[in-house]
Amino acid sequence: MSRLNVLLIVSSLALIACGDGPAEPAPTTPDLSEKASGPACGTFADVPRDHWAYGAIEAGAEQGLWSGCAESPRRFCPDEGASRAMAAAILGSAAGLEPAPATGEVFSDVPRSHWAAGWIEAMHREGLVAGCGGGRFCPSDALTRAQLAALVTGVAGHDPATPRAAFADVPQTHWAAGWIEAARAHGIMSGCASGRFCPDAKATRAQLAAVVIAAFNIERAPLCEPDPNEFPLEPGSLAGLTIALDVGHGYTASGSFDPGAVNGRDRNVTEYLANQETARALRPMLEAAGARVTIFDYARGTPERMTLRQKGARARGNDVFISIHHNAFNGSVQGTEVLVDNTVATSPDRRLAGALQRGMMDSIWDGDGRYDRGVKSQALGVLRGAAGLVGAKVLVECYFIDHRDISRGAVPELARRSALGIARGIGAYAGR
Length: 432
Ligand SMILES: [Zn+2]
Description:
It is a single chain. This protein is α/β, with parallel strands linked by helices. The chain folds into two domains: 54-215, no CATH class; 242-429, Zn-dependent exopeptidases (Aminopeptidase), CATH 3.40.630. The chain is 30% helix and 11% strand. The chain has helices at residues 54-62, 84-94, 117-125, 145-155, 177-185, 205-215, 271-288, 308-313, 347-365, 381-386, 411-429; strands at 242-247, 250-251, 257-258, 292-297, 320-327, 336-341, 372-378, 392-400. The strands form two sheets. A six-stranded mixed sheet has the order 4-1-5-8-6-7. The chain has a two-stranded antiparallel ribbon with strand order 2-3. The protein is elongated. It binds zinc ion. Residues 248-249, 260, 271, 325 line the site of zinc ion.
């Protein structure tokens, strides 16, 4: 089956509900099996809520008219061409037909095994589609906009209208002029640009979707709100803010790789890994709010050999500098803390530290005070390196990586929660 083909599926299609994330587990034994995935909002990763056909594509998916072109992530391929077979299947379904048991004997190029054979034969039996000539249907051929207008308007029960030369490129003698006028008059299709219809242009999958929804008066789906657990800040609320994130540990000045703290039960669970995953989860949250984000990540084999102070100095010019770390002690202590330097801390540093601590306490521990280790002062080379060069600088210790309950599988979800708290903390610090 071609990946262009829209699969018809039952109407009880399970949709990803907006804002309907996994329930928050109890803080002491986090259920970390749920992992954020898929589009922030809506069903298809390539149809964001500001896509012109979002409401139509979502509505059709809800009605079971189409399910997309690919899974993981689920996609719709809105800009790819719509085929004649796809149009027949979708329109047959929208018109309430049942796919006929295919005989494979109606069109020479639509064998019984063709995915849309039942629909094409049912549509043909109802007189709603014709072949392309010579006893064939040309199921894989691209549908033109003129064909789309004629097909959809006819299947929706309208007659061709008297051509009125509404479009400069559709003369009254055009074979589809009456259908195009009917489609225009019924609000099913409009032009392609300044007074033209582009009758010979290939119809895209998004256009097919929009036209079917309009022709059958299906209500367009409302815009969903982005999941606040993925995008915690208002779009634009950090506009202009520059943020440098330092992935703690990794390649060092001595030319060796320092994994930071390591979990005693699972040596794959390292602080460096958790630092990196947290920075990567945090970046899109901040960028969605308009911030400019730089990540300093000293992955294995990084060419630079830098001291902690040099790593801190790289943040020069940023409004916010956060060195991301995870704590370790004896395998049973757990909690969150934020550190400022004990000699060069400024009041913005302390304000940022307090905001991040509050944010992470809420997002990681549901505000359970037992895990609140507070804001602390310590001698910290990476922060001293950034002193005087940035607006505010702190080091976060998100949680204890060596705790016996922390497994490799838990790291991504904890990274997401840590990032969520840090993002909210930055939002509070920036007063936006
Ligand atoms: Zn560390």
